User: What shape does this take?
Amino acid sequence: MKKVVLAYSGGLDTSVAVAWLREQYDAEVVTLTVDVGGGSLRQGVERRAMSAGASRAYVVDARERFVTDFVWPHLQANALYQGAYPLATALARPLIAQLLVEVAQKEGADAVAHGCTGKGNDQVRFDVAVHALDPGLEVVAPMRVGMGLTREQEIDYAAERGIEIPITKSSPYSIDVNLWGRSIETGVLEDPWVSPPADVYEWTVDPGRAPQPVEVVIGFEGGIPVSLDGEFLAPVDLVERLHVQGGAHGVGRVDHVEDRLVGIKSREIYEAPAATILHAAHRALEGLTLSKDTLRLNRLVAGEHAKLTYDGLWFSALHRDLRGYVASSQRVVSGEVRMRLDHGNAIVAGRRSPLSLYDRNLATYDEGDAFDHASAVGFIEIFGLPLRVEAARHGAVGKHHGAAWAWTPPLLEALPTTVEDPEGGATG
Ligand code: ARG
Assistant: This one.
């Protein structure tokens, strides 16, 4: 290995990794830092990379592409891992992997490297994505192959080599951030019974201390959010604005025991105000604009989509094809949703769309009802036909309580009942 491109956050681990790679492999190290928003870009990261011995330090602002190409397709798909996790960390990995590969190709490097441990999902996501994009590249993860240093050892290691150390206080947690969410693990959180201490949260206020509820109107075009309260916004601005507003109302805290790809159950805390609000709003608008069969299929697709992304299979053909289906299904998901931010909750308060399938004349119980009540009789006749045939051939469900295969025990004789009798005298 002559040259390696390292995914570099500017933190202690990856700073030590620069020197470690040079010493262990005698390799030239190029660093790549990707700004995916949310405070992921640290001040002075290029300088620190050079002080650690990098020959060149790339810094890429990928915020907009992260939102448009990775976050939006998952919002359109309603993809939440195990119904809970908006996938912020998982979504950034294929983007960073792609940039690693592009820089490696540009630099003529023979390997890429990342600072993931051997226990998590992120190593899988990086390795699998890199090899999908360029099977010729080697992937090195120093933490997996011997660079297992404690924090104190890392500090000493850096000091001995004159590596500039980030001046952050040591956090009791392992944290990953980007525009779409903040992922927090380890420390006291490893006991799933312990409620997260207040210092876990940085983006959201305690919902109990949130101010008076507010409403925000989110405009969508083709399943993609485009405006807030009628003002059209660029993707990054829109997410950042909702992030601030949601966080101020305590919206977006997720406490999840999740199943990692490597077989471990892990307790994770997420803060994702914008994701929480946008997912709820998007589903509400789909309910108005998509047919019931499309909604049903979309729910299945959402689960598959989330799983593939979580498992690091972004660059698989199946993932791509699912994205194609989802994008197509979204062409009518346009309109507005009113969301109420209320003490930690993002509540749908209303929705409207020029492409709405909701027809008030059909739905109403008031005057102007256009629904043909009489034709319901014929519909039910045919809809219920299979059950009547079943009852005729196999016996009516309610008539065979004594039979071994009776489905439902009788209710009336088992429940306290009173009967008003016209002759007088109620019986109990
Ligand atoms: N469990 C999440 C995932 O696999 C988040 C991982 C975050 N990483 C971290 N260092 N905290 O996507």
